[in-house]
Amino acid sequence: MTLSPERSVPSPRRRSRLRPAAIALSAALLGAGAPTAYAALADESRPAATAAASPKAAEGRPYIETSLLFGTARPDGGPPVTDKEFHAFIDAFVTPRFPGGLTVQDGYGQYRDAHGTIERERSYELILLYPTSEARPNGPKIEQIRAAYLKRFGQESVARIDDRARVDF
After folding, report:
1. What is the pTM for the complete model shown?
2. By the 8 A CB rule, do 44 and 38 touch?
3. Strand partners for 165
4. Looking at residue 1, what DSSP letter applies?
5. 39, 77 contact by CB (below 8 A)
6. Which residues have a Cβ under 8 Å from the Cβ of 168 and sit 6 or more positions away?
7. What is the pLDDT of residues 75-117, one digit of tens each?
8. From CA 166, how far away is CA 59, in angstroms rounded?
9. CB burial class (10 A; 0-12, 13-18, 19+) of residue 53?
10. pLDDT tens per residue, range 144-167
11. 161 Cβ partners below 8 Å, 6+ apart?
């Protein structure tokens, strides 16, 4: 780039030529990345040989990942749900319905309660993984867990998040 002797910025004439060149270069770089991005979104029903040749091929089998978010503050102002109470709940209500395994993580969250107050509380995230073929029979089991927690600990809600996943053990 040639600079004018009087100043340390490119001349207006030089800048006007650089701008279209920069735009063209940016478009070319973005266009070069598009095939890679679309390849990552390709249909999962490709033949196995094609999937194995792809460096970004999804591993594992199709599963559903369900997360349940359990708060510990009691809306009636009672004492928060303790670790001991929560783990007893998992043992009594979750493990019998999902004996194949589960994950519990400690958390901290907030929500707006039925009265409009922002509530902050310690919480738990329960993660369940199961094959997509088991989604229909597991749905009612998950709803039983949610209902039992609401009743047992006087909660307003238990959030449920379902997502598709590829899982390999």
Report:
1. 0.65
2. no
3. 63
4. -
5. no
6. 59, 60, 61
7. 888 999 999 999 999 999 999 999 999 999 999 999 888 889 8
8. 6
9. exposed
10. 999 999 999 999 999 999 999 999
11. 66, 67, 68, 69
